[in-house]
Each structure stands twice: as structure tokens, then as C-alpha cells.
Amino acid sequence: MKWFGYKLHLVVDATYELPVTFKVTKASESDITEGHKLLEQMEEKQPKLLKTAETMAGDRGYDDTKLITKLWDTYKIKPIIDIRNMWKDPDKTRLLPGKENVVYNYKGTVSCVYALKQVNNGKCATGDLRKTARN
Predict the structure, then answer these.
(1) Alpha helix ranges (H) inside 7-80
(2) 3-27 b/e with 16+ CB inside 10 Å = b?
């Protein structure tokens, strides 16, 4: 949450709806950096909560490979974090390499695009559908 140049980073126990730990920073501070610091703070002051936590939900500001890896590998916490769109081009989908009609988006959703609106024996119809896939 941003308010007059400040940001509140808050960890809440969703079961009891109580704050666990928090930090107020300048609005310019990185969410990722503060996410790591909050985990370290919890490890120091509330290690039992980290051991019993099952999931961690956060917005795309916390989308960081190191943070996600730390959550899963170190604490066995499933991260539920929306990913940032890091694609530089304006295309909404891209062709899967080596496939003519299978596309994916920046979130990793894979789709089969076919011109005849049908599937033959469980396989996508063939054809060059790059223009269709991008629309």
C-alpha cells in the first residue's frame, strides 16, 4: 500500500486475520528486497510460523526467482505471486518453437490455435497461424 510516499509491507496470518510482521518504507524501496527482509525477520522472531505456513500470496511486485526459490526450497511455502509481464514486444502470444499452431503467453499458458475450429484425433490442425495467434 502506498500513502504519501510510504509503503507498508505486511505479512498477515490468513487463518486468524492477524498481522505477523510489517515494515514501513519509502515508496521507492523495492518490494522484492523487503520481501526477503520480512522472511529473514520472521525466521529470527517467528520461526514456528514459517514452519507451519503453507502458502504466501503477494502481488507482482514480489515476483522474483530468488524469493520464490527461497519460499519453496527453504521453507516449503507455496508462493502464490502474480508474475510481471517482462515481454518487450507487444505480442500477446508467441509460437512455441518447432510447432506451427501452439502458442503461449507471458504467464506460460499454452494454447492450441487451429483454423478449422476442430481437433483431429486429439491433435491440433496444422497450418501457419502466426497472424491468428497474435490477434
Answers:
(1) 31-45, 47-52, 65-69, 75
(2) eeeebebebeeeeeeeebbeeeeee
CB neighbour class for 103 (10 Å; exposed up to 12, middle 13-18, buried from 19): buried
What cell does 19 get?
498481522
Q: CA-CA distance, 18 to 120, in Å (whole number)?
A: 53
Which residues sit opposite 36 in a β-bridge? Answer: none
Distance CA 50, CA 1 (A): 23
Instruction: Give tens-digit pLDDT for 52-108.
Output: 999 999 998 999 989 999 999 999 999 998 888 777 777 788 888 888 888 888 777
Residue 128 pLDDT > 70: no
Judged against a pLDDT cut of 80, whether residue 43 lies above it is answered with yes
